[in-house]
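Can't paste images in this forum, so I'm doing it all in text. The chain is below; anyone willing to post the predicted structure tokens underneath?
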Amino acid sequence: MSKNTYAVAVRDVDLRLLLTVVRASAGDIYVNWPRDMEDPNWKPHGSWHASGQYHHKSYNHKLLPVQQRQKPDASFTDTGNL
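Text version of the structure:
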């Protein structure tokens, strides 16, 4: 399975990675917020699945109720925040 990964970095004093956006070939989109590896179970992220399901997770628990949105595919119209 191929994927496209994009990085967003910020230079304040030093250059640091703020987040990554991953688009999987299946159509799922993930926004990942990298954190210190002191706690490898802490992997906060948001996901917008090809089915239209949208949610955020941290410590493998959904933080907000799962939403059903339009599918992020070629028929996508308007805008959507992740």
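The mean pLDDT is 90. The chain is about 0% helix and 45% strand.
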